[in-house]
Design goal:
The chain has 530 residues and is of the alpha+beta class. It folds into four domains: 98 residues, HprK N-terminal domain-like (Udp-n-acetylmuramoylalanyl-d-glutamate--2,6- Diaminopimelate Ligase, Chain: A, domain 1), CATH 3.40.1390; 136 residues, GAF domain (Beta-Lactamase), CATH 3.30.450.40; 111 residues, 2-Layer Sandwich (Alpha-Beta Plaits); 82 residues, PucR C-terminal helix-turn-helix domain (Arc Repressor Mutant, subunit A), CATH 1.10.10.2840. Helices cover 46% and strands 16% of the residues. It has 17 helices and 18 strands. The strands form four sheets. It has a six-stranded antiparallel beta sheet, with helices on both faces. The longest helix has 34 residues.
């Protein structure tokens, strides 16, 4: 059989995370509390609170689960039947145990009290003569507070373990393993079709046995819990939680089973797991629709699929940001510490993509022949760049742009990519001077200069240096022979002869403006250049 239960249903007598039992309280106060009649079951009963009352009928003021203390005023002068009726009222109200103080009203336990408690299965405790009832209440409160603090710390550690599981390579399976160990139960995760997608802890029920429970889970809406019992010993208590999207669409279920009911602390852990699983499923279903919507809109044309607003919305969803928030292009190449072939093998590509998606908090990541490219809303703080470099990546970071500027931003970053390996460090568009020399970078610039002026390497050092200085001066004054002659302090014919000699050695046409521009840029990277 099964039935619905509210999400916060109490699993025991205690309303908090912790259940304190009668035996633990007795162990803390052995000189003050003496057990006269034991409890009927093997396990000690749980206590909600320690209450004191001298009313003949205190039951209207009780919630159940109390350790009721009394000095026996209601039983003074009562017949055995009156004592029996008093005990009957307490047990009917769900009192966990009765604590009886033998002074100052009574010198000993009233006649028939122990027998009446034994017949009703109500534990009877005798309170020492000089023990104030408030001492028992304070001890219970102190124990409850200490236990709640301990349980709170344990729940924090459990939440951390579950969060680490979510960030692993197999988040659902890892999360279920942690959950099963923490709540000491078997756990099953199903999709909206009822098929089991992941499990932990040796489930006692299969898909067909779980189907009726899942139908009840899916029949409702909003947060809910379905509770069922089965004949299998490991399925004495089975609870099912729906996993839904933000629009209350069923994405799957989380079902847990154990031989006994779950404690409040275990219910808290389960609730956290339900929230994490919903986030994971939303990302893998509804969230993953954003890139396909973006691609469809761009391929078919914005005017046919909802206009530019549709593009902006799909882009924002794809980068996990707000609509209209600027984004940037980032390209990465494997650096010195990057091991293994690139591009990755087919079986490793998904793991690379998932890791890069997590680092950049975006679904717009693509593996390329040179490394990767991504569109992200991340401001790319220094710690993230350092983390990427520690993982063996060198990145070129673009400036923040709106959607229309993405293509230009990509071209800017692509122009910087060539200098990543040569420079051995990551670069940002904002930090690079907006010039050809700035985009080349020192290493790439020296490579260009070395190759361009290689025909001069066979000359003696002073001769080579003189020809390069003459060429630099002549180019700097826009080919004016007289101005170059004055600046170098040599005859104009010497200047002409030297420049023509360089042109012959380099096999270039100095009458071509593009050639002169390339030579002038390359001269900036010649060692010793001003």
């Amino acid at each position: 059989m099964s039935g619905s239960a509210p999400p916060g249903e109490r699993a025991g007598a205690s309303e908090g995370w912790v259940e304190l039992t009668l035996d633990r309280l007795l162990a803390q106060m052995p000189a003050e509390l003496e057990l006269v009649n034991p409890w009927a079951d093997a396990a000690a009963p749980p206590l909600r609170w320690v209450a004191t009352s001298e009313l003949e009928d205190p039951t209207p003021f009780l919630l159940g689960g109390e350790f009721l203390l009394t000095a026996g005023v209601p039983l003074a002068g009562r017949s055995p039947q009156g004592v029996e009726d008093y005990v009957a009222r307490l047990t009917a109200a769900g009192v966990t145990a009765l604590g009886f103080g033998v002074s100052p009203v009574h010198d000993a336990l009233p006649e028939g009290l122990a027998a009446a408690c034994a017949r009703r299965g109500l534990p009877l405790v005798q309170v020492a003569e000089r023990t104030p009832f408030v001492a028992v209440t304070r001890k219970f409160a102190a124990m409850l507070e200490a236990e709640n603090d301990r349980m709170a710390r344990h729940l924090v550690q459990t939440n951390r373990r579950m969060l680490r599981a979510v960030l692993s390579g197999a988040p659902e399976g890892s999360l279920l393993e942690v959950l099963a160990a923490e709540v000491r139960a078997w756990v099953v995760l199903t999709g909206a079709d009822g098929r089991i997608s992941a499990s932990a802890g040796r489930p006692a029920l299969d898909e067909e046995q779980l189907r009726p429970l899942q139908e009840k889970i899916f029949a409702g809406s909003g947060p809910r819990v379905e509770v069922a019992t089965f004949a299998a010993p490991e399925a004495g208590t089975v609870v099912g939680h729906p996993l839904r999207s933000e629009r209350d669409v069923n994405l799957g279920t989380l079902v847990l089973g154990a031989s006994a009911a779950f404690t409040p602390a275990q219910h808290t852990t389960i609730s956290v797991a339900v929230g994490l699983l919903e986030v994971l499923l939303r990302q893998r279903t509804v969230g993953n629709l954003a890139p396909s919507r973006l691609a469809t809109t761009l391929l078919l044309g914005a005017e046919d699929t909802g206009g530019d607003r549709a593009v902006r919305r799909a882009l924002a969803q794809s980068v996990s940001g707000a609509e209209g928030e600027p984004v940037r292009v980032v390209q990465g190449v494997p650096g010195q510490g990057r091991e293994g072939p690139w591009p990755p093998r087919a079986q490793d590509e998904l793991q690379e993509l998932l890791q890069l998606r997590r680092l950049f908090d975006t679904r717009l990541v693509e593996i390329t022949g040179y490394g990767f490219v991504t569109v992200t809303r991340s401001p790319m703080p220094g710690r993230l760049v350092a983390d990427l470099e520690a993982r063996g990546w060198l990145v070129a970071v673009g400036r923040p742009v709106q959607r229309p500027g993405l293509r230009a931003g990509h071209e800017e970053v692509s122009a910087l990519r060539g200098r990543l390996r040569a420079g051995g460090a990551s670069v940002r568009v904002e930090d690079v001077p907006c010039s050809v020399a700035g985009l080349l970078g020192p290493a790439s610039g020296r490579l260009v200069a070395d190759r361009l002026f290689a025909p001069l390497d066979g000359l003696p050092g002073p001769r080579r240096q003189m020809l390069l200085e003459t060429l630099r001066c002549w180019l700097g004054v826009h080919g004016n022979w007289d101005a170059c002659s004055r600046e170098l302090g040599v005859h104009r014919n010497s200047v002409r002869r030297h420049v023509q000699h360089v042109a012959e050695l380099l096999r270039v046409d100095l009458g071509d403006a593009r050639v002169r521009a390339e030579l002038l840029i390359a001269l900036q990277f010649v060692p010793g250049s001003p």
